[in-house]
Amino acid sequence: MDKQQLISEIQELKKQRDAVILAHNYVDGDLQDLADYTGDSLELAFRARDAHKGVIVCCGVSFMGETAKILSPESRVLLPVPSAGCPMADMVTAEEVRAMRKAHPGAVFICYVNSSAEVKSEVDICCTSANAAKIVASVEPGREIVFLPDGNLGRNVEHDLKRPIHSFSGYCPVHNQTTVAMIERARALHPGAKLFVHPECPREVVAAADEALSTGGMLRYVAASPEKQFIVGTEKGILHRLVKENPGKEFFPMDDCLVCADMKKLTLESVRDALRDLSGEVLLSKEIMDKARKPIAEMLERSKA
Ligand code: 13P
Ligand code: SF4
Question: Is 3-86+263-283 CATH 3.40.50.1220?
């Protein structure tokens, strides 16, 4: 079927199902164009909470669908490709969090939103890359902090806030492969271009970049910047919006290897099938949802302007 026909079919199903389509900044450009909202993890969480729709189609990885379901339990939340997960989210289990709680009694447990609902149900506050520093800074001075699962994000926040944090050992396989040598090569190819990376990159990479920003932060930064050339140190999918929303500006991927295989599993066909068959529904127990909602609600409260 040709692309336009497929898009028309999805639009028709969307009406029939009273659905909204949310997409992460890393998914294929066609899906970003199709979606009602495209954004970073925090923006998608707000959109899901405020959706009030029969169906929410979440074009992203599984933790994003779970977050949408937890915040919008009355809606059916569909993950077009349920096997699209986040390897970092799988690097910590609820059991490990319970063991860490015993080892650090009295600590505040902060959990990056890239984590399972079960893990969230064991922590105090969630955060995303857009608000991690703000959330950590909101913890009363002197309290011990345990940050999971992303060790790089934890260490980057620790450096920025000059506040000790016990960071877990998880990492994003896409961003963790970035190196200072990659930055040097990209700068040599595009001298003078502003270079930004994601805070999931290792500390020395963030230190060598001009900025470390969430994907939503990158889009806002470029829109407000008078600069004309940018080297993009995150998953390549974000180039779609950067190019589309910023005519006259040029963007260069920091390295061609920055591809999240899970985000790339999402296709127009998978969205059509999910809407047609109501497949890929996120199902979580009420108990887990109620427990996991607390740290997410705490994050949303603390990340208000
Ligand atoms: P953002 O919240 O910055 O969009 O990041 C999500 C993510 O998975 C980064 O790898
Ligand atoms: Fe997970 Fe990394 Fe993919 Fe983001 S880019 S979804 S952190 S594997």
Answer: no
